[in-house]
Design goal:
278 residues; alpha/beta; 8-stranded parallel beta sheet; 8 strands
């Protein structure tokens, strides 16, 4: 392999939810209150494992989940963010939201952070403007249609890879118009895609490097892995790392993960493989 000079980072997931698909990631009690002890432990564990970005989500975006609304999302975040900033004052925070009002409130509370929007601004027309006005880094994710409406897009040349590539070519104009300079693309593994489409997209992930934007990959313990293998989210740490290695080989710059330590080990191995001094 050639030497790799990407600034590859590990993004750790904090779910301030009670219904995220991976039960171990949930940090709300059954009564809806924040488990502050568990939150502090999780943050400290991430820091010791070498996390670069902490991604905080207060609304589950798993398939079939229902939004909790901006007010409830903010209530959860406003309880968790002071704790997160206290424990990790120098770590970049990312907020997983598609509500512009949440972006505005978080900015008022903690200042600059990264916005991680599964809808790429399509769920809230005020989102891109809110991000651009504040000069925030932004992750735009591909999510368009459903697995059923996308079912015909299986061929590489005319299918899912080109759909995703064209989506982000179009988004580039929207980002520029909104004044968003620092943006990242997320192909949206597991969102409105069949299992076959997910793997086709992974196989040809390097094509998206032509867009000259850092690529975020979020596949950690997802159904594209555990359903294919007949397992549960609890059982697929090793297969997740196998796919993380593939993603790194094909151009990923950020891995969004539940297991920071394991992902960091995968990255160390990848960097060793791309070390010209081998």
């Amino acid at each position: 392999m050639e030497a790799d000079y990407r600034n590859i980072r590990i993004m750790g997931i904090l779910n301030i939810t009670d219904d995220s698909f991976y039960e171990e990631s949930r940090l709300l009690r059954v009564d809806g209150t924040l488990d502050e002890i568990a939150l502090r432990y999780k943050i400290r564990q991430m820091l010791l494992s070498g996390v670069d970005i902490i991604d905080v989500g207060a609304c589950s975006t798993r398939p079939g989940s229902k939004g909790v609304g901006a007010d409830a999302e903010w209530a959860r975040l406003s309880a968790a963010l002071p704790v997160i900033k206290e424990e990790a004052p120098k770590t970049l925070i990312s907020i997983d939201t598609y509500h512009a009002i949440v972006v505005e409130k978080v900015y008022s509370l903690i200042g600059t952070f990264m916005v991680n929007d599964i809808s790429a601004g399509r769920m809230d027309k005020k989102m891109l403007g809110a991000v651009g006005q504040r000069g925030l880094p932004y992750i735009a994710m591909h999510m368009r249609g459903t697995p059923e409406t996308m079912a015909g897009l299986t061929d590489y040349k005319d299918g899912i890879v080109n759909e995703v590539k064209n989506f982000f070519m179009d988004f580039a104009f929207k980002a520029d118009a909104a004044g968003i300079k620092d943006w990242y693309l997320d192909p949206g593994f597991g969102f409105a895609k069949t299992i076959s489409q997910n793997y086709t997209l992974m196989q040809h992930l390097d094509i998206l490097q032509e867009l000259l934007r850092p690529i975020v990959v979020g596949i950690s313990r997802k159904s594209m892995i555990y359903n294919l293998l007949g397992q549960t989210p609890d059982d697929v740490l090793a297969p997740t790392q196998a796919l993380h290695m593939v993603a790194l080989e094909r151009g990923a710059s950020i891995l969004r993960v539940h297991d920071v330590g394991a992902a960091r080990h995968t990255l160390v191995l990848y960097k060793k493989l791309t070390d010209n001094d081998l």
